Give the backbone structure.
Amino acid sequence: MSTVIKVENLSKKFVISHQRKEKYTVLREELGRRVKKIFSFPFNFGKTATNFSKEEFWALRDVYFEINKGDRVGIIGRNGAGKSTLLKVLSRITEPTNGRITIRGRVASLLEVGTGFHPELTGRENIFLNGAILGMGRTEIRRKFDEIVAFAEVERFLDTPVKRYSSGMYVRLAFAVAAHLEPEILIVDEVLAVGDAQFQQKCLGKMEEVSRNEGRTVLFVSHNMGVITQLCERTIVLGQGSVLYNGDSTQAIETYLNSQKNKINKIEKTSLSEENQFITIHNGDSHGNEKSEYKFDDEIFLCGSIYVPEWSPFLELAVSLYDKHKRRVFTIHEPLNKYYHGSSKMSFAITIPSNFLTPGNYSWLMCLNYPGNTLYDLQDDICSFSILETGSDFSRYEKADYGCVHVNYNIKFKD
């Protein structure tokens, strides 16, 4: 296959300014400083001390990859990894600091809402404007015009200035233009998340169609791992501006998840008082390794240990799980009497089954108590973790609130 994009040793540097913190002074010192500045004429006239320092930030560093004609390539990574900067460099919006990019073919980019549209022009006029930017003739644009409008579903507002469009309408029209005006390379950022679930699936189907049937190349950035798996045969993982992995999408997602392990938080006490309390608490995997991010079909393990110098047969471990809105998902009350064997230290592991929690952020509340009598230790909003969307049945409803758990159910239809 022929190479349509070749990136060699690509780097992009930005200069960031930081304001220095000024030392606080009393009024007498400030007046003296200003008088001294006045009488320093002519030596310092017009000069002011700068309160800013500058820092070099490399958004991309020595990036190398090749993309062939007809490839569907995903780009994933944490916020700040360099994804958007890479797309802007490939789209010729910004120039690289070092390195070389070779692109063979017309490029259409959909990087943010409204990119390439003139707000004062109507939807109809912007279709022709975008086509002209892509180097297409008026006849060619007219041939595709009806198909673009039908895909975008904005017929009623075609002669309305796009500055009056909602963000969803912007995206529908912008994607329709980018996908139908026959660019050889289509670059799409996370902007599709603005659209509704039905339109997102429509766009994914279109990108797969133009790649598979028309041999066009697609570069797609998303935080939705399920969409990446569905659309992209190959994925590039970026981290701190460098390529961490470039290959099979399934393995790329594993690499991305493993790169997040430094976000683990846990409870770990180094000194203990003579009362019942937690010693350690952390999220983990089946091997006991600490973990803070899970795929939707991973088992989740909450592991810990407790110190019980004041044993009571009524002692109980209480655990609650909260979602990102601090809604209680479930609560466990477990009497410890059946696990006690005379030792003052006890370890536990609670297993949450796979495909139970929906994608999102969660945290724990844990309590060691004698119900209705004594509260020994309460740990609230601890050991937060994330369930990532890596291809669940609800992946097409990204960012919709459809609850906290996947329910097991039976359904029957009758005539």
